[in-house]
Amino acid sequence: MLFSLIGKQMKMLIRNKQPLIILLVMPIVLITILSLALAGVMDNGAEEAIQARLVLVDESTWEKEKASIQEFLEKEGIIGPPLEALLTQIENNNPIQLLENNILASSEIEKYISVVHKKPEDLDTIRQDKEVDGILSVPPSFRLNYVKSAYFDKQIEPDLDLYLSQENEIRASIIQSVISEWQYGFTQSLALSKAGLPIEEVMGNTKKVEKVEQVLEDHEREIPSSIYYTVGMLVMFALYVPAFLAGFALQEVQWKVYDRLILAGVSSTLYTLSIFITGTLVALVQQIIMLSYGKFALKIEWIGLEGMIVIVLSYSIFVGGLAALLTTLQFRSKSDGILNAFNGFVVSIFAFLGGSFINIGDISETLANIGDFTPNGAAMTAILSIQKGEELAVIWPFMAVLYGYVSLCVLLAIVLFPRRGVTV
Amino acid sequence: MLQAINLHKKFKTKEVVRQVNMQLEAGESVGLIGPNGAGKSTTISMLSSLIMPTSGDVEWQGVSITKNPESLRKVLGIVPQEIALYPELSARENLAFFGRIYGLKGPTLNERIEEVLQKIGLTDRQKDIVKTFSGGMKRRLNIGAALLHKPSILIMDEPTVGIDPQSRAYILDTVKQLVEEGMTLLYTSHYMEEVELLCDKIYIMDQGAIIAHGTKDELKSLVSDNQTIELKAHILSTKFESALINQFPKATVRKEEDLLTVTLAKSEEPLATIFALAANNDVMITSAIVKIPTLEDVFLNLTGRALRD
């Protein structure tokens, strides 16, 4: 019965043009207009992608160095099958091989660093390219020096050249953190492998991913107008979902369909629950569509997936609770006065205080603090914090505000629902 | 048996229903007639457990439904005066939704939907969105939605309001068929002819109270001592109307455009006198019809007003 009620409410929403226009078309149009119009004011440069571009210039290929390494090993007295075995091990487990195949090619690191291979003669040109965030240059005798240093304790440092661009500090830091961890790994590798740990494990990805995340946390990301207004419109227009659902509920009473539901044994609790769930689902879908629009049309790179899921889901649950409360209030008042007041007054005030149109903190810190106690303001600040690269823990106070509102809405919806039927 | 006992409903200070007593036996078709605002809809809302009476009670099978409405609700189908449907859904989607909330599902639900669509003549239009339907089609679907769960009592509140004659005839045929199949029916209307056609027993309601009830014949016998004469003339003067009232002080005289309706005792021999009064008042009568009493006459006799005044 619950699914039938939810399905019916969904169909009513989808088949009405007005809700579709207000819940989806209007916010998307506003996001586009505001993002473009205010980009000059808000954006310090274009939205910066998080994925860093690393150019790898390897002058020390295995093919070039194999002969000299073999010669060195023979001089050290390694011949016959042990020589062949050692050569195979060096070929497969040398640090450059591991960096390229195990670390940079891994799915965890790939989303933070893209790698391009270039020849040494291109180095000058590459350094002029502002799109490049880092260049890792492997000198001609790197592998040989590594073998000498790591396997035979020769006092030769297997040096690498890492050039980092000054164009984008975060992306450069991401490259630096991964390469530093890798360098640290390969200097330690032999000692640790002697202790019985395989070299791949010693130089695994986990630490490097943690380092990248640390970089992102340490560097607060600039919020461009596209992100600001996508989030601002997303939290504001979700507030119209309850108004539509409560409006349909009042129509059900006016058309006497609600009488049919009562006669069929649909309890007030079940009916309110169906409104709550529908509100939650519609708000969730609406927010996903807007976030997707931001991603694909405005090329926004949403970060902090975990945090985003928690916030969007929590805000959707709040919208569901608000839909249940507005329905109850409408049933009590038996008119659409409450809805008109909500749509015309409450949403505007909340949108202003919550910062959907302007960053209220620029006007007054007190107002910004009050705004953070509005449900939309709390959700917006939480999302923007995550998008700045702040840690997940920062959202919990805002989630507490949201769930406080959810509890209040559900409690009032239950307490105030007319027990003796609803007639007009 | 469904029984209303001294039902009384007050909205703030206004008494809408006053001490109503009614009975519906199984398989009986009962009409509730009265003008707009007589309290019919409020009465059926109380009878169907949708609103609580201010005082009095409704009993179903001897049990008060004000305290235990569930037993009645399961077997009750209600056709409200409003089109209680979802205009954005198709006819079939509406029926499927109402069927599901009554717990029907799967093949049983589909089978039942087909039966109902056939009964209300909308099989061909089942996939169309309701808001594209004519008024008559919406009314038919409104009835269909009340029949899905096979109720044993059907309460219909003005089911033919505002529709074309063909749709009205279709609906009346459908309801008649339901009655013949044994459905217990409570039918409210201000169309006397519908109630006369469909109902065995009739309650007449005016200003919140039942002013008469009985079978059609019993009600007509209330005015059987009277005769109704309908007079048509080129110009019906007030002077002539006054002369009639003076001549027949116990008669009810009602004027509607060029028609004058005179209800008076059968014992009187009025025609010669009426024609003489017309001649004296320069009124040329073009037709004079002596009518057999109808429920309309009963209502007129009881209230002094026509049902649709």
TrEMBL record, chain A:
It comes from the Bacteria. It is found in: Membrane. Pfam families: ABC2_membrane_3 (PF12698). Its main location: membrane. Signal peptide: none annotated. Keywords: Membrane, Transmembrane, Transmembrane helix. InterPro entries: ABC-2_transporter, ABC2_TM. Coiled coil: none annotated. The chain crosses the membrane at residues 20-42, 227-250, 262-290, 302-326, 338-358, 394-417. This is ABC-2 type transport system permease protein. It comes from Psychrobacillus insolitus.
UniProtKB/TrEMBL annotation, chain B:
Keywords: ATP-binding, Nucleotide-binding. GO terms for molecular function: ATP binding; ATP hydrolysis activity. The keyword Nucleotide-binding applies. The keyword rRNA processing does not apply. SMART domains: AAA. It holds the Pfam family ABC_tran. Residues 2-232 form the ABC transporter domain. This is ABC-2 type transport system ATP-binding protein.
